[in-house]
Design a protein that fits this description.
Elements lengths: L3 E7 L3 H11 L5 E6 L3 E2 L2 H4 L3 H6 L5 E7 L1 E4 L2 E4 L2 E7 L2 E9 L11 H16 L3 E6 L8 E4 L10
């Protein structure tokens, strides 16, 4: 299957958002940061205050971050888009990337390594629900993994 891969973390606590973003983008420069209502943001000053920016706007609102690299466990992706969505006083963090942007790793273990990395991120952030799949990842038929299982798709 080809296309956009989405890794989605639901109900991320406010206090964990900045740390989770830092962990995902730790080895990468932020190329661009925009807000759904405010437009382009200064990445250096806005990155630390993403929750404050979202809280002070009408819901739903989103912040989009384009980065050079994102790291989830042992898997690195080039040119990812991170979307932080705030609605009904909850946060959803999505990492979106093309399957071809996964850096060279053992392809047969990519799903497992991505799942293991997502599990660690979710655990450290205190979020209970996460899943990954081809867009739309909300469709269980296009899932690569969820919190509780691998599949039904098993390769990227």
């Amino acid at each position: 299957m080809n296309g956009l891969v989405e890794l989605i973390f639901e109900r991320v606590p406010d206090v964990a958002v900045a740390t989770m973003l830092s962990e995902l983008l730790r080895r990468s420069g932020i190329q661009e940061m925009t807000h759904s209502e405010l437009g382009k943001l200064d990445a250096e000053t806005s990155f630390r205050d993403v929750i404050a920016l979202l809280r002070h706007q009408a819901e739903p609102s989103s912040i989009f971050i384009r980065a050079g690299i994102a790291t989830v466990g042992a898997v690195r992706t080039r040119c990812p888009l991170v979307r932080l969505l705030r609605y009904e006083e909850t946060n959803e963090l999505t990492l979106a990337f093309e399957r071809t942007d996964i850096e060279a790793v053992d392809r047969k273990d990519t799903i497992r390594m991505l799942s293991d990395g997502a599990k660690l991120l979710a655990s450290s952030a205190g979020t209970a629900e996460y899943y990954c799949g081809f867009e739309p990842a909300t469709d269980e038929r296009t899932r690569l993994f969820s919190k509780s299982k691998i599949g039904p798709l098993v390769s990227v």
